[in-house]
Amino acid sequence: MPRDSDDPDDRDRRRRERRASRAGEDSSHDRDHIRDDNRERRRRRGHRATDSSGALLTPQPRAAQPSDSERETPSPRKPRAAPRTRRSSTTPRDSTPSTSRSSGAPLSLDAIAKLDRSHQKKAGWSGYDYDEDYLKEVRRKEERLERERLKAVREEKKRERERSEGRRRAYESEAAAEVKTKKERRERDRRKGGGATDDERAKKRASAERKGHTDDERQKKKVFIDVERDKRKSHTDNEREERRRKYEETHTPSERAERRAKRVEEKQRRTEQKKRRLVSGPLAEEGGVDDDEYQYMMEKRGGAGSVPSDYTEEELARRKKIKRILIGVLAILLVLAIVIPVAVMMSKKNNNDAPKSEGASNSNSPSNGNLNNVDPNSIPDSAKGGILDPFSWYDTDDFNVTYTAAAVGGLPIMGLNSTWNDDVQANEKVPNLKDTFEYGKMPIRGVNVGGWLNIEPFITPSFFEQYSTRDGIVDEYTLTTKLGPTKAKSTLEKHYASFVTKQTFADIRAAGFDHVRIPFGYWAVATYNGDPYVSQVSWRYLLRGIEYARQNGLRINLDLHGAPGSQNGWNHSGRQGVIGWLNGTDGDLNAQRTLDIHHQLSQFFAQPRYKNIITLYGIVNEPRMVDLNTDTVLAWTQKAITQIRKDNITAILVFGDGFLGLDKWQGKLTTYDNLLLDVHQYVIFNVDQLSLKHTDKLNFACKGWTAQSKRSMDKTTGFGPTMCGEWSQADTDCTEYINNVGIGTRWEGTFDTGNTSTSILKPQCPDGKSCSCDGANADPAKYSDAYKKWLYQFAVAQMISFEAGWGWFYWTWQTEKAPQWSWKAGMQAGILPGKTWDRDFDCPSVLEDYGKLGLPETY
């Protein structure tokens, strides 16, 4: 039928078709032609109901009314008259099926026309409208197709992600391979010497690290950017079309136009801002930028809110003023940071240039003024920073700082002056240095400078008190291990420079001494693999100490206090614990090392300059022969004597009694001349002597030790020449760390070694009950008169007893805290004589009862 037909049915059909056309999203002119073609085909033949994809629709039973969520938005057009429809009155007249996402178009008019034709045939009249069941069937069919399409899209996205992940892994693999290749190439270049030098490459790496970008980081960043770019490119055309369609659905044409205008405006604003002149903060504060530009600049520098746009001119001015003040303060601080260090350096230089007083070496600050006239270039590059470089020394006072690599016995003479003077007398009781000291006829009255060149915890507890028991710092070995090489060197060299000085030897001379025993560890000469000790630095101070003694007419007893492996396992040997000297796996190795140490020492001190001053040469201090094989120690001692004499040492050789007891040495080592037996006498380490009452201790010192000395001096009952190399006036073992770090006391019964066979857990004072260390550890100024008197007489009694032999050396000259072990502190407290020979006590046959004098036996 022609389109302009006046037939009512045709007009009604055309109206339905126009309404369906308006309900769809696509109303193009091409669709009108499709509608006309479909109308022509319906006049020629009948059709079965199909959906928009052409599939046949199977009639379904009439369904219930759709819910509100299923209903489409009603058309604004007026509904048809009720008699003409068989739908529910609640169903909108112009509802249309959902559009197909696979084709991007609504249900085709051809399918709707086919449905219409089918209904007309069934109903027998042309005005029958679309049945609701068929519409719902169409919706279900289209929804199923939409789900299938979405599933296909998801699968495509998944495959695209997998492809992107594969590309990313490939990029990373290639990047890692490239980095590895570059590293290998750089390594080859370095070995071949080609390409950039090591310094250039190091500078390049340092620059990259300062910028926070290593080669690996830059490569990873590049891979990440590439992957992100691929992700952005991976969107399909359908996805972009879908986003565009949704945007058009949710925004009206006017809204889209408004957004486009805003984007154009924002782009123009950014372009204008880029063209603006950027200036610094100080220039803006000086008026070099207008307010708008300043506002923009501050926003760029500080972010949103840095300078709110509603600030007044007064507020901006105030802020500018504050910034000017802050900048001024920073400038002043910068100037001070530069000026102050320069001023300190100049002041230090001026102080070094100024004349130094006699006692300046007692200061904790060294004097290095004698370096001012030395050219640093006179030190060879190979020696710089080492023991031959005076510019690396902490203290150069009284050292010869002229460089020399000369050595004797492999030991450097650097620091020594080429001339010396032995025309010095310590006091009127002894001969001049250049004259002979008649040993055995003249008593030795000497003192140790212990805790100086080898550390002992009770002498310098400050090194150990700063650590907890968990740290296990108990000796010089563990101390230097804890400090590490650099800090250990600086720490111990400061100690060497300040603990014993030039003034120390002058004070020793003034106290009436004629000999000084200088203990040192083998690390003054050499160190071995695994040793943490500060190597050879103490050697320089040992040589300076000998020269200070020479200047005061004091003769030297050279004492090897610590041997390789430790000869007794006590802390003053350097390492507390197992004896590794002549014992254990490395016993023979350490025995030879000790001989090697002596070979160097004896060659060096055989020089003419030491003939008059080093008159006593110690072999090894306190070998613990009660725990070592006696024959092994004796055999080693004979080797040492032979070697030392072969190296031209003419001094008296001193060997220790090894705690065997003086009577056990009768008949031993009798084939050698100029040997001296050294015994160390203390009452506090023997519980039988420790628990004696004060009068009994004094009596033992007057009679017991005197008798021992006389028996040992008689070759029919003892070795012969005997001296006491260590003793003190302490009558308890209460001094901190005297029994090792962290170990208690025998006196109070807290001596816990962790071994039941050696621990002493019962008080050892005379009554064995109420023992206290408070009195012994008190300040000497608080001692009672009776206690001071006893301490004085106990010290003098020991001097008398040991002078029955060749004499004695007190242990020690000074301590940080323990006055009963310091001659210097005891003399100041009045419990030791002002002069070694000035005594007002002489061991009478009957001693005073100190208990009746009011001296507590338990403190």
From TrEMBL:
It catalyses: Successive hydrolysis of beta-D-glucose units from the non-reducing ends of (1->3)-beta-D-glucans, releasing alpha-glucose. Pfam families: Cellulase. Residues 88-106, 361-373 have a biased composition (Low complexity). Its EC number is 3.2.1.58. GO terms for molecular function: glucan exo-1,3-beta-glucosidase activity. Keywords: Cell membrane, Cell wall biogenesis/degradation, Glycoprotein, Glycosidase, Hydrolase, Membrane, Signal-anchor, Transmembrane, Transmembrane helix. It is a single-pass type II membrane protein. The keyword Signal does not apply. Residues 496-733 form the Glycoside hydrolase family domain. Residues 77-87 have a biased composition (Basic residues). It is found in: Cell membrane. The chain crosses the membrane at residues 325-346. One of its GO terms (biological process) is glucan catabolic process. One of its GO terms (cellular component) is extracellular region. Residues 20-40, 133-271 have a biased composition (Basic and acidic residues). The keyword Metal-binding does not apply. Belongs to the glycosyl hydrolase 5 (cellulase A) family. This is glucan 1,3-beta-glucosidase. The lineage of its organism: Eukaryota, Fungi, Dikarya, Ascomycota, Pezizomycotina.
